[in-house]
Input
Amino acid sequence: MAMAETLPKRPLLDLADPKFLADPYPAYRFLRERAPVWRSGSGWVLSRHADIAAVLKDPRFGHDFEGTLSDTRERSDLLEEPVYRGLRLSMLVRDPPDHTRLRGLVAKAFTARRLEAMREKIEALVETLLDAVAPRGRMDVIADFARPLPVLVICDLLGIPEADRPRFLSGYRVSGRALDPTPMTRQELDEVNAIAVRNRGYFEELFERRKDADGDDLITALLHVRDEQDGRLTHDELAANIGLLFGAGHETTTHLIGNGLLALHRDSGQWQKLVEDPTLADNAVEELLRFDSSVQLTTRKAFEDVTLLDGTIVRRGESVMCLPGAANRDPEAYAEPDRLDITRKNVRPLSFGGGIHHCLGAQLARIEGEIAFRRLAQRLPGLRLEDIEHPAWRPTITLRGLTRLPARW
Output
């Protein structure tokens, strides 16, 4: 028998509420305790670690991004918007066999050996960024450090020419609103579309410049695949997935560093532990990923009737919203989950997803985070954040991060 609880129809998860965006964890705790499998509208919301881990690994769940199982007419017009035309061709939301094909083509750039080989470059980038700010005695952690580091790293991995990289440090941006489950206003959609069109235009021009070039970067490799005759990669798929890799390759790492540094300073004893023993940085990254994840939710749809761990039956075509941010603070998975502890053992957060959609760049993000936190603690031990009580959060929930984070030392 299903154990799901149907709660009164009130906004348990008001995803657009600034209070929720600033601190979603009380709402997550309420859901875990009162309705861990919650019927919301025509879908389900999951907040427990075991339930979410099971769904993310279950091949009976997928994205069905085009809505063919249940709501084709509702989505048909939306899918013609530029931002969704690109997103629908990316491996982020594709299901097998397309997902398998696209991920296989990209995965060669994210081998453990290749990522470890990038460690020296990442170390050098961190030193350069810290050299620029250290004498000033202040910085905006996001603009001066947390954002440029992963942007430059992903530029190198993709093979974006050095002459083009300054544009990505200043005028280029991506928007996480297209990934949120809350509908956008027409104004928001127009803004997101403009970003998508501008970004697509740059990569189209870059592909034309690079089509006959040699190199061991990912763009060159995928251009060669596109130009082969076996149909493994279309031009539109190439553009969509390079755009995805650029955005995903820096957004989540930016938020890992920003959210993590904020968490460390909200519990100054944890920052002091890291300062006294910078070798804790590796473990600290795992705990910070758990404590305040860059990715707060992901949605799946049932391809067939599925019985969840508690007996709840999810019918074919129904959606399931998974909340990794809630799962990461499940007391059934972690003792004292609302307490930050960078020495915590056996931390395995769901922040990078699971199953076939487990984040390809997870290891790269971990390497960047470990080097960033270690060197911040070593070089700027007196760093203090100017506003830890009311920082500026981005108005998105799928990707949780700060717009700015002023610091002094």
